Here is the input.
Amino acid sequence: MPQTAQKQHYARAPGTGSQVTSLVKEAKAGSRTAFEQLVDLFQEDIFRMVFYRTRSTMDAEDLAQDIFMQAFKNLSGLKAVDRFRSWLYSIALNRVRDFNRKKRFRSLFYSFNDSHEVAQSYAKTNDHHEALDNLMIQDFWKQIGLLLDKLSRMEREVFLLRFMDHLSIKEISRVLGKSESTVKTHLYRALQKFKREYSILQLLQEGTP
Here is the structure.
């Protein structure tokens, strides 16, 4: 099994749908090399997704490795190979929820009070962000934290999956096990609560610090 936690985290362009589907088929047929290529394609996205919800580099690394181990173990049960990405995010989201429940967190997120330390920690995990000013990152996460507190649990999760994880409405529907209309409703409600924060929305649409 690939040691994902020991690899450097860096921005990577996602593979094409046909490429991913081909690799999933090979991995289901028993190719460990194909699965390792899937890990390479998705490890940064999964790490980032978990980090947004745990606010801890160490926990995100451990959980990301565990998520891929679970995916490897359960891959034979994936029937629709073209839905690998949303299936992987479902595993990740459930693993994060289990982690938070075990730690008795009152929500999916750590307190943002120590946002400067959190921002510095994340900046160290991604080459793309190392050149950014830490104070700007700190301010961004502080604003995001204050705004997320205004959302319900489902609104917050839909919002993060759409703008932080960049999943489509259809993929979010699969990840959460909700209809697309329900996802759109929660996303609309979240956006309404963010409507006075156009600068933040613009940053989220263009890419977060």
Notes: The chain has a mean pLDDT of 76. The domain at 115-206 is CATH 1.10.10.10 (Arc Repressor Mutant, subunit A). The two ends are 31 Å apart (CA to CA).
